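Cont'd.
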Amino acid sequence: MRTRVAVGLALLSLALIAPAQGAGLRQRARNRLAEVPQLLVRAIQAQPTLRYTGTYTTEFRQGAKQIRHQEYITRDGAWYRIDFPNDSQFAGQVIIENNDVRLHYHPIPNEIMQQPPRHGEAWEKVANLAGNRRLRLTIDNGEVVAGLRTDQLVVADFDGNVTQRLFIEPGSGVIMKRLLFDKIGTQIGFFEFNQIDLNPHLDPSSFQIKRKNAKVITPKTQLERLSKRRGFMFWYLPPGSGFALEGANPRNFAGVEGLVQTYVNGTNRLWIYVLKSPVDSGRLRNGAGKNLHVHSFDSMGETIVLMGNVDDRTLSRFASMMTSGTSPAHG
Amino acid sequence: MWYLVTWRREHKMKSSEFSKFEQLDDQLNTPSQLQVSQFVKAMPEDTLSMAWRSSLNEKLIEASNQKRRKQKLAWILRPAMGLGLAFALAIFVVFQPMGSHTVMPDRGLEAAILTDHHNSVLQNEVSTAGLNANEVVSEANPEEPEDGIWNDADVQGL
């Protein structure tokens, strides 16, 4: 009886402590919000209603290459239209995106690729900067970007390693320029407005693609074509998983041919690597760290690696859903 | 005597053995034996003392207390053992050696995959609604359909 009383008292004390802990967490969250620079708060608050037209340059680093191109943007809140200059290798392509769908028109095959939208994920990551206690957010001198004065938000880890620099126009909250760095400080991503109109006249028809005889295809079709052309089995994670295929791309990893598939579920992302050589799963797990989960299996001479911020059990379940890989020629 | 006769018949007892039984019967019916029997019957019936009963009760209560103490101990030890077992199992599952895992020479493949993944995560933030890094470098953009770049409408329009 005494023991039961002791257990009861322990449970009671836990019940009393839990709300206090909750209150502590709420207080810490309030403190964190108080630490967030107003510049970032302004940028986050402005995102859903921003309206502008403009031209910007983006740059990605792929291996040793820096790949730069220009895009024209027309934006009305969650509606986006992207075009490309006439001298661009992407000339004629048009992207229309809203909160429900992304339509990417390719003029040469006269096809419209229907994909899940992706802008929400990017803006959510900006918003997450405010809540991430492992980051230090500071304000530094900005630059004049596309004729507008900006303030600079510097994002660094607690050791002072800068991971991002955002140049924000304080009046509108538009992110005019953004630089992203890898773990050793190499710039791996960049965009900067060259010209912007914050009070544009927008025609609703700008956000439509009307092209007769254009064939609407899905990323699954693209994956089938790519798998066949590159001599891979057709590995595909069905929508029953909750994740939708966004796209597939060929890659060469240290001399090994591979296909990278990216899947999205809201703001969650999953990567599937199909490789023509086995991987050392232990080495991959060790390198992935705590937050990134990895599951791999070998089948029919190919190695499939699933990677993402979903738990091991879910990855294992997804792997079992994928095991019906068949050649696209027959599938 | 009749039952002995019947019993003997059924069991085909030898005559010498049967005579032994007859002798015993006779001995029990002797006056001296009957007198002893009457004497025993006349003895007063013995009653159990209160002291003995009390000591028996104490022993029973002691035994019962011991059993209860053992039950209480089991009430604590069993969940503790269960938790300990579950914890040991969890430790084993988490830190179990990879049975089928074979160490391969490091060709840089795993590092290349992880770098690609890391860059992909960051670069998606830059592109927002525009082309992402994959689309910019990929042969999949623009993607040629299997039946060529011309569709029926294009051919008819020539």
